[in-house]
Every structure is written in C-alpha cells, then in structure tokens.
Amino acid sequence: MSTVRAGAARVDTVLAALAEPVRRRLLEHLGDDERTAGELVAAAGDEFGISQPATSQHLRVLRGAGVVTVRPDGPRRLYRVEPQALSVVEDWLTGFLDPFAQPLDALETELARGRREVRRRDPSAGQVPEKSAS
C-alpha cells in the first residue's frame, strides 16, 4: 500500500471511530487526563443510558482506531487519548484550509504597523487635505 493510501486509510479509521456521538463524548471525558474504565462507563450510562458492555464496545472501537490507549493499573484499566491519532485527522483537514489566510493576516498586521510608524513620525501624514473653497 502506498504511503498516501496508508495515510488516507488511517484518517478513514479515525473518522469512522469518531462518527459515533458516544465515542466523541468519551473522548471529551478523557480530555488530557487518564480515566478508569469505570468512570467512563458511569459517564456513558448517565449521559446516554447505555450499559457497561455497550460502553466497553465503544472503547474497543476507539482503541482499535488508535484514538485511545489503555494500560492496566492493578485491577483497573486506565484510558487516555492518543494525540498522534488525532493529529492525523488535523493534518488531513489542514489541506482544506485557505493557504493564504495566515500570510495575509500577517501582511495586514505589517501594513498597519507601517502606517502607525509613519503617523508617529509625521502626524499629518496620511490625512486627506481639505478642499479649499474657490
């Protein structure tokens, strides 16, 4: 498989995992912290009324897509977001953004800075002269 196609397949996998509202909400609960499976099951049960097995299935899909990782901690399982998986989608989306937007914003800032500098040196610069009554 080519590198481009492999990258596209990875984006497809992550987006498919995130297409389900319950999974996105689980991701939000994780944020940049670790949470136990029990905490995630309780949150999904409270918000969506789903059972522990259903929540486990959602977590399994997120793990399979590489969106979350899990590590054992004694009898508990701790989940956390895998930022690398999300950056794959971010990189893909960047291709759709206006490539000129940020450079044009920077140009606008520099032009305003230049106008300010000119006004500071010569307060009358940039003013439109009044028309004389003839």
Strand content: 5-15%
The main β sheet shows up as: 3 strands, antiparallel
Q: What's the alpha carbon Rg, rounded to whole Å? A: 26 Å
- N-to-C terminal Cα separation, in Å? 80 Å
- Helix and strand content put the structural class at mainly alpha
Low-confidence stretches: none
Write up what this structure looks like.
Strands 1-3-2 form a three-stranded antiparallel sheet. The chain has six helices and three strands. With 134 residues, the chain is mainly α. The longest helix has 21 residues, at 101-121. 63% of the residues lie in helices and 10% in strands. A hairpin with a 2-residue loop joins strand 2 and strand 3. The protein is elongated, with a radius of gyration of 26 Å. Helix 1 (3-18) packs across helix 5.
Could you provide a short overview of the structure?
The protein has 134 residues and is mainly alpha-helical. It has helices at residues 3-18, 21-30, 37-48, 52-64, 83-94, 101-121, and strands at 35-36, 68-73, 76-81.
Features:
134 residues; 3 strands
